[in-house]
UniProtKB/TrEMBL annotation:
Annotated zinc fingers (dksA C4-type), start-end: 122-146
Annotated protein name in UniProt: Transcriptional regulator, TraR/DksA family
Coiled coil (residue ranges): 37-71
A Gene Ontology molecular function term of the record: zinc ion binding
PANTHER family per UniProt: RNA POLYMERASE-BINDING TRANSCRIPTION FACTOR DKSA, RNA POLYMERASE-BINDING TRANSCRIPTION FACTOR DKSA-RELATED
Keywords per UniProt: Coiled coil, Metal-binding, Zinc, Zinc-finger
SUPFAM superfamilies: DnaK suppressor protein DksA, alpha-hairpin domain (SSF109635)
InterPro entries, sorted: DnaK_N, Znf_DskA_TraR, Znf_DskA_TraR_CS
Gene3D superfamilies assigned: DksA, coiled-coil domain
Top-level taxonomy: Bacteria, Bacillati, Actinomycetota, Actinomycetes, Micrococcales
Length: 153
């Protein structure tokens, strides 16, 4: 596990004052050890950093996209190839911005689950998501089994 700085611990404690009590109730899968406060804090610090990064990048991307859309009508006399290239670039920029918005929403949802004390619990089954899964994908809301069922539909 990563060693957290005093500033990181203070930021977690400020935003999630109940984490120390809640982590004791996080479910674990068979064969897993109980969650420690350090493990939970490490994941939360990562989610908080991801939230900050995504918010910053999304703000920058929104400005760039607005500029691109504002200037996309310029260039009178563009031929069809230029228009097609501009449309493709506009679509790619929109896709990137929408993907960032989705990631930010997932990150915020994970942090809301931390605040409610339901972070390690599968939303579909109420079972443990699993420490290894959350450490690999901290935004996970479903156990591996529930995710597999969802993807088969």
């Amino acid at each position: 596990m990563t060693k957290l700085s005093a500033a990181e611990r203070a930021a977690v404690k400020e935003e999630f004052p109940e984490l120390g009590r809640q982590v004791k109730k996080y479910p674990v899968r068979d064969g897993e050890s109980a969650w420690t406060l350090n493990e939970a804090e490490t994941l939360v610090v990562g989610l908080m950093a991801e939230r900050e990064r995504l918010q910053r990048e999304l703000t920058e991307a929104d400005v760039e996209l607005s500029d691109f859309l504002r200037n996309s009508g310029e260039g009178a006399g563009d031929d069809q190839a230029d228009s097609g290239a501009n449309a493709l670039e506009r679509e790619q920029e929109l896709t990137i911005v929408n993907n960032m918005r989705d990631l930010l929403a997932q990150t915020n949802r994970a942090l809301e689950r931390v605040a409610r004390g339901t972070y390690a619990t599968c939303e579909a089954t109420g079972a443990a998501i699993g420490k290894a899964r959350l450490q690999a994908f901290p935004r996970a809301t479903l156990s591996v089994e529930a995710k597999a069922r969802e993807e088969r539909r």
